[in-house]
């Protein structure tokens, strides 16, 4: 009987390491790929070659990451502004500017750099390795350099997708009580506690938070006494059964509400005057002036600042054409 042929011995294959997941343990989006040439520059600190920082022009192209960091910092500003602009279409310039500043500040950029463990790969002079890698400025510059490399490798679209995802993992203003991420296009209803503890329904629709306005107390001033005159001190105009505070502030509250609805910005100027030779508070008067776009739309003078402001508010309502439904 012929011997059985020996089984072919398969060559031993090294088990390949699993591919890195797209999302790391911290929930951050994966780092976009960059070219090898740029990668060397990104992770090279100027101390490695003893670069002279005072020279404006080098004989050859610098090998450190400073130039990439400058490019990345500029692009980051643009990308963050664009992402906020698209994600929050109803927010005003001031809010967008504040949020942009929060995302591009050194503290935040350095935090992202540490989250990706980039400083551990930074090549420095051996005498400065520890101090450079722990430096917040160096950490932020390293991340900005990586942004610059992504921009040169993949362009703005790749960079916008990465930075946008990174911003939305931060929480505020995406995951907090402000506005939802645009990926969450569903409609949800939840309760938000106001400063006074009252429950106010908040409607979340496609990343825009719509908060119903708070209920105003007797905005329209009915039941005023027949002898009411805004030119009298407020204490003399409060004989109505309506609570004093509601009656006295009727015109001012109306002005604030209706001006806000029409996005009219009112700026107030106040001046106090005292009769010559008098020290009595009864001889002092306040003059309040309401201005819109630099023009006076209402002015009032009374013994108290609040009374003068009420008079000016009444005039402003008429000047701006907002006095419909207000009794004289």
Automatic annotation (TrEMBL):
InterPro entries: dsRBD_dom, RNase_III_dom, RNase_III_sf. Coiled coil: none annotated. It comes from the Eukaryota. Residues 173-196 are annotated as: Disordered. Residues 181-193 have a biased composition (Basic and acidic residues). Pfam families: dsrm (PF00035), Ribonucleas_3_3 (PF14622). Residues 250-322 form the DRBM domain. One of its GO terms (biological process) is RNA processing. One of its GO terms (molecular function) is double-stranded RNA binding. Gene3D superfamilies: 3.30.160.20, Ribonuclease III domain. Residues 31-155 form the RNase III domain. This is RNase III domain-containing protein.
